[in-house]
Amino acid sequence: MENNSRDVPYQMCSTPVGFVLLINNIEFPAQSRRNGSEVDVMNLTRLFKKLGYTVIQKENVCSKTLNIEIANFVEMFNSKKVDSCFVIVLSHGNVIQMEMSDGVLVNIYKDITYKIADERNERNQGLLGIPKVFIFGSCMEFNLSGDVAKCEYSNDTPSNGYLMTCDKFDAADWMICQSAYPGQASHRHKEYGTYYIYTLVKCIMEEAATYDLVSILNNVEKTMTGRAEGRNRHFVFENYKERRVQACTTTPHMFRKFYFKVPVVNSSCSKRKRH
Question: Is residue 135 helix, strand or coil?
Answer without folding.
Answer: strand
